[in-house]
Amino acid sequence: MNISPKQLQIKDFDYNLPDEKIARHPLAKRDASKLLIYKKDEETKEDVFTNLANYLPENSLIIFNNTKVVEARLLFKKATGTTIEIFCLEPADDYADITTAMFQHNKVLWKCLIGNAKKWKDEILVKKILHDGKEIELSAKKISRQGENFIVEFSWNDEQLSFAETLHISGVIPLPPYLRRDAEEDDKKRYQTVYAKYDGSVAAPTAGLHFTDEVFEKLSAKKIARDFVTLHVGAGTFKPVKTETIEAHEMHSEFFEVSVELIEKLIHQSNPNIIAVGTTSLRTLESLYWMGIKAGQQSTVNGQQNLTIDDISIHQWDVYELNDENIPVEDALMSLLEWMKANNMKKLIAKTQILIAPPYKLKIADILITNFHQPKSTLLLLVAAIVGNDWKKVYDYALNNNFRFLSYGDSCLFFT
Length: 416
Prior knowledge:
This protein is an alpha/beta fold and 416 residues long. The protein folds into two domains: 10-68 and 200-415, QueA-like (3-Layer(aba) Sandwich); 72-172, no CATH class. 25% of the residues lie in helices and 25% in strands. The chain has eleven helices and 17 strands. The strands form three sheets. It has a nine-stranded mixed sheet. A six-stranded antiparallel sheet has the order 5-6-7-10-9-8. β5 and β6 (83-91) form a beta hairpin. The longest helix has 25 residues, at 278-302. The chain is globular, with a radius of gyration of 22 Å.
């Protein structure tokens, strides 16, 4: 792919989103949300999400992101009464991946944003929580600063508790900033997919919020197979593009995990229809293709066992600068699989910084289920890569037909 989106003007991906169109709370029933169905050169249609299976091809493979949102907002009160908010972004570089860091006991290092940072000098902050009849003390010590972020050492006095469990009892679910409200008791359940499994996200993979057991039953009836990836959504997903062109915007990177079994399934999938639930699942799937391209190109020079995960990780502009020579998906994934097997890996754990924007053409996924995204966002760029300028028509339709927008809003079904 030799055409780069670097010169795209972000003003071309703007639209007017009235405040009243933003869904502040979820609907009473997950699958009662509206569903917009888009196919090129066909009339845009709408239905209710519970009928999703009616629009999907039989014998497809649908991929979900089973990450779990963690209670990443920690509020500490100083003796003066000042509240210091610590927002846990991702583990410090000392850990190989989020899961390893989440399972730490006694203490852990974390990259954080700090609210009221100027009022936190060098003292250790302490938060006391009553848990199972025992008082837990969680301490926070500021270690260093990295740009806008800080490295904070957390320690707690119950060696039975992992950091994930400690966050669960002491933190608050981090709702998106555009909801402009504090998290409520209901958000603990509703800002989480019903299949959430692995702790690590600071934002929900929101396309998955609509799924229920009833929807799964209808998918099974159409012989639509299900599988999972894990991509831990970072706060960068809400980072607006503030530069005139995309070239000056730094794309956020996120941890993901994919099993050998899923990669094998993608190679041998007899039906060409791969459905990605959400932009996070899509970004993970597309990253696999390009990691395979890198593994194939570099292993011929360096040998598979000499390649590290850093050698084949995907950076912001890789997919526009790598020459894939129209290598089939199966060949690229086979190169990735061979590299994993040469290194005795049962699971691929990596970071991706992939930026999907026009003129990108999807390599693995054919269909996307997603919510409506913010103006001037990288997520809207991703939608535009799939449907082209029709994204404006789709969003106009939604705005004029009482669709609810953003995380707790309604959903779209896009066919490439």
